[in-house]
Structures are given as C-alpha cells and as structure tokens.
Amino acid sequence: MQIWNFFLIFALAALLFWSLGAFFAWKGKKALAVGATVAGLAVFLSYVIVLWIALDRPPMRTMGETRLWYSLFLPLMGLIVYSRWNYKWLLSFSTVLAAVFITINLLKPEIHSKTMMPALQSPWFAPHVIIYMMAYALLGAAFVMAAYLLFFHHHQAPSDKEWTITDNLVYVGWAFLTLGMLSGALWAKMAWGNYWAWDPKETWAAATWLAYLVYIHYRLRKQGNMRFALWVLIVNFALLQMCWWGINYLPSAKGTSVHTYYMN
Amino acid sequence: MWKQPYTYKEGSAISIGLLVTGGLLQVAVGPLDWIVFMWPGNILALAFLLLLLAVFYALRSHVYFFRFMTTVQAAVPALATAAVLTVVMGLTRQAPEEKPAADVLGLTKMLNFWPFILVYLWNTMIVGEVAIFQICHFRRQVIPSLVCHAGLFIFIVCGTLGSADMQKLKMYCEEGKPEWRALDAYNNVVELPLAIQLNRFTIDEYPPKLMVVSMTTGLPQPQQKPQTLVIDDSYTPTELLGWKIQVLKRIDNAMPKAMAKMMKGMPEGMATRMKMDQLGMRLNEGGFVAYQGKGAATALYISATKGKQRKTGWVSSGSYLFPISGVSLGNNLEVVMPTREPMRYASNVNIYTQKDALNIPTTIEVNKPFSLGDWKIYQLSYNEQMGKWSNVSVFELVKDPWLPYTYVGLYLLIIGAILIFIQKR
C-alpha cells in the first residue's frame, strides 16, 4: 500500500507535537500542553481517516492497524487524565509508550491489504475494536501509574490523589473492557451462532477481566497492602498483552482460535 | 485461622479447599458431564441455587459464614483463583467437545474439570448473594454495582445451565434438493421440523491479485515483505520486483482453450468431472477463452517488462478443474495469481416448515442469520475446493431456549458497565 509510506511523516509530526505537549506539561504550561497534544492527536487521527478511506474498510484487521489505534488512544487518555488531575509527568509517559508502538509499526508494518473476510464484515466490527483499544489504553495508563508508584516513587506512600487517578483509570478501563467483551459476545452470536465459545482469545479476555476485578475489589478496603494492589496491576497488564497479541504466538491457541485474522 | 472476623487467609483457604475438593471429585467420579443439566435438570438446579442463596440470606444474622461470603475478603481470593484457573485454561490446548481430555488431570477439558467448576460456582454464589444483599439494603450509590452483580449472576447462571439445552447442528444442503436432516457434534442424525432447499450459492470475490513466487521455495517474494498487486478497475501498470506489469486482457470467467474445446458438447455431468493436469496445461497452446460454465476462473494476459526483457503469458488462479498458470520471469521466479479471496458468500434458499407448511424464500449469509421459531440458521461453509462454483452450502442451526434470559443478564451487565463509567466518584 502506497498510503502506508506516508505514515512516517504523519507519525513524526504527531510525535513532535506530543513531545512538545509533554515538555509544556512538565514546565507547568497547561494551555500549551493541551494545545500541542490535541494538535498531535489531530495529525494522527487524520492519518487513520485517510488510511480508512484508502483501504475502503475500517483499518482494524491487522496487528499493525490495531497498534495504530493504540498509539492514538494512549496520548488521548494521557490528555484526559492530565487535564482532569494536572498530573505533569503523565503526558511524557503516554508519549513514550505511543512512540514505542509507532516504532514497532514502522519497523514491522505488516501487510495492509484491502481484503476482509466475511465474518468481519459487520456493524459490530468498528465499535468492538475501538472500545477494546480504549480499554487497553486506559489500563495501559493504569499500568504506567502503578509502575511509576512502585519503581520511581517508592520512597514515599502514594498520595490520595495518585490513588484516585489509578483507581479511576482501572474503573473506566474495566467498564470499557466489559463493553468490548459483551459487544464481542453479541457479534459472535450473529456471526457464529454462539455468544461465548471459550475460544483462546475469549478465555484470555475472561482471565484479564477477572484479574482487574481482583484489583477493584481489593481496593474497596482502603487499608490493605497497597504494594500488592499495584503489583496486581503490573501482572494484569501482562495478561492484557497476552490477550491482545500474545495468543498469536501461543502454542495452545495456534490453529484453534477464530481470532487469528492478524496473522496474514 | 478461622477466628472471626475472617481475613484474606480464610478466604484463600476456602478457595484452596475448593480446589482440593474438586481434585478429589475429579478422581472419584471423573469429569462433570453437563448432560445432567438437560431440562429439567437445569431448572431444578437453578431453583435449588436460588433457594440456597435465599436461605443463606435469611440466616445471615445467625451464621457468620453467610455474612462472610459477601465480604471483599471472600471475593478477592475467589476471583484470583478463578483468574488463575482461566489462565491455565488459556495456556493449555483445550480438547474439542466430543473428545476426551488429552491429559491425565483433565486440564485440557477445563469446562468439565471439577476444581474449575467449583471455583466458578463459589464466585457465582458470592455474586448472587451480594446482589440479594444489595437489593435488600438498597441505596442509590450501590446501583451500578448492583446492576453489574445481578447482570453477571443472571448471565452466568442462565448461560451455563442453558448450555445443556442448546442444540447446535450442521446441515449440508445440495443445490436443488430439500434437506431436513442435520448432524450434531457427535455426527448423530437429527430430523428437523423444517427443511431448507438451496437454490443458488454465490460468492462475491475480491479483485484478483498478482505476486511473484520463488519456484524453489514456493514463497512469495521479496521474502521479508511480500509485494502484491491488486488488479481492480483502477489498475495502472505498476512495478513488481522491478518488472513492470501490464494487463493486456482480462477474462473473469475463463478456461484453458484446449479444455474448453474438449468440453464442448460434452454432457454436464461428465464435463464437471474432467480435470486438466500440469502436462495438459503445458500443452495448452491457445491460452484462455471465456467460458460461462462451472469451474471457470479468472485469467489475465499480462506482459512483464524489465529493461529490454519482455515476457508475456496467461496468469490464472486455476480452479478445481485446472491447475494454476503463471508467467516465468527466469531465475526460478514466476508471476502467479493466488486464489481470489471471498468478500461475501450467500445462499439463496427456500425454507419449508412442517407445522404451518410455510414456504419462505430468503438469503442467508455470514453475519446475517435467519430466525425461524426457536431456530437460528447460520451460513457456515461451502465446498471450498470448488470455491465459487460450490453446489453445496453448509448451514449451522442453533436452538438455545435459554438465550432470552441469558441476554437479560448480558444487557444488565452492559448497563452496569456504563453506570460504572459515568458514576461520580
């Protein structure tokens, strides 16, 4: 696809804006930080739209395409959390994480063909994937918070504000996870006749969903072991990666999962 | 241990106890066969479960354990154990429904594995009991949590118990012949109160693609990042591995000339059984001609130019009647056309019902099942070897009498998730 060759330009421009946003956030210039991040989002989103039109189908089928959405939603989540709670370092983290996924896409673009098998041609396709990518981005941000509080900030106990941010990211992330999973169930019923078939992807989705419920319920009592709660988020993020792309490499899922559109 | 109030220790001990109990059950009675929950087994089990939860609630003030089961200290270890078992399930290749477990313990049939079932049951009971508690101690703030708990409880209970009543059958329909028999997962024949007559099976395909493969390895080139050309209406001559590819002629339904000549005047039954082999293809000198019968495939007459070199020839994806045809570029490289990918496949059918003698003409396609009474009919497959000329269409017929109740739970959980999302914290 020729359109893919333009990705570098859009990606670099978006990353430049996001880095500027992170810099301004660090310097405490909120208006500039928000403005630059929004500009970066606009640039990146316009590429996604152009790709959508060029492919003549939602760009959500291949791994590379879902990474594209992830790279878009991460700074968006960063921006929402930053503008709500003024957390100055969060934009730096979301930018770095987005840069990682953009780099993977540049090094391993994967084939972007126009074809899409009949099972994917459904009105459920776009909402299902977008909701899931939102959930992954929110829970990715929660992971960033947990990693920061555990490894970079460990000399002092997390403040109430830091807990509020982490909890809220998990609550909202879990809500999106639930909606993604259930929209998938409704779609599966339309496409395959069964809303839940314990396909490897579904099994991992269930495990991840339960694992985030562990955190949510553990945090209902505020006086527990808080390092444990943060470690739960670290482990859960690993489960999330397994569910998203790890199963493509898992021997137990090879050839049995109906969710392997990614591989060619 | 076991001093009130209980902590995570006791909560974890319960989960471990369930794993051990499950293990013993697995050894003693073998894996659980869900068939015992077929109607009326499931409705009795449901009634018993609800009664149990109601009794637990009624005796809350007398029995500490019934109070404990609605606490976080019970829920967190239960959830964690369920998550771990689900991860184990994700890491082990699960055996198909109709086959026994592939390992001694039974981990490859997790859904029939007693420890897994007991832990999920414990979670379900906690969820149900919490829902009852939240209903009886109703406050506005608990609405999102209550809707989630109630929805999840209904979804899991109806989905699990209802699965024993679910019928999932495969019906193989041949063009022109009404079919009323179908096969279950164990290949038992089931006669249905409805019949399906396949009138026509059609596939719409994506435009043909060209690529270069290495004849020694069979792999598309360049190996790291295979390149393909999509030959649609807007195609203009493009380079493929340094060769400029021009399409000089395009026939969507084509046949090798030698074969078309031979098939002329031949009875259809015989013609469709003819096959052209590699040798025949090499002897075929007249290229491809248009052919409107079964077994035709797309053929492109192309030229490939690189500097002063110029190669021309026919490229075709081949069909079940004749092999693929490519243009050699030298160096063991060849331009070929992979089989065209299906964009949409659909069956034009008439469905007859036994009871009211209805005759319903309709089209069934992927993602667009047809509902008839308790049955939902899905487009499942076709004769893939014959591709778009398949005269067979495979349908899946699903009857799930518990589905409406399961969906009540599912939609409640969706509402619950939305409420969690918009809840003020």
From TrEMBL, chain A:
Superkingdom assignment: Bacteria
Any one Gene Ontology BP term: cytochrome complex assembly
GO molecular function: heme binding
Transmembrane segment boundaries: 31-55, 67-83, 89-108, 129-151, 171-188, 228-247
Membrane topology note: Multi-pass membrane protein
Annotated localization: Membrane
Keywords: Cytochrome c-type biogenesis, Membrane, Transmembrane, Transmembrane helix
Main subcellular localisation: membrane
Residue span(s) of domain Cytochrome c assembly protein: 86-250
GO CC term, one of those recorded: plasma membrane
Protein's recorded name: Cytochrome C assembly protein
Organism: Hallella mizrahii
UniProtKB/TrEMBL annotation, chain B:
Top-level taxon: Bacteria
Intracellular or extracellular location(s): Membrane
Gene Ontology cellular component annotations, sorted alphabetically: membrane
Transmembrane segments: 12-29, 35-59, 71-91, 111-133, 145-164, 402-422
Keyword Transmembrane appears in the UniProt entry: yes
Protein name, per record: Cytochrome c biogenesis protein ResB
Keywords attached to this entry: Cytochrome c-type biogenesis, Membrane, Transmembrane, Transmembrane helix
InterPro entries cross-referenced by the UniProt entry: Cyt_c_bgen_Ccs1/CcsB/ResB (IPR023494), ResB-like_domain (IPR007816)
GO biological process: cytochrome complex assembly
Membrane topology: Multi-pass membrane protein
Domain ResB-like: 340-385
Keyword Protein transport: no
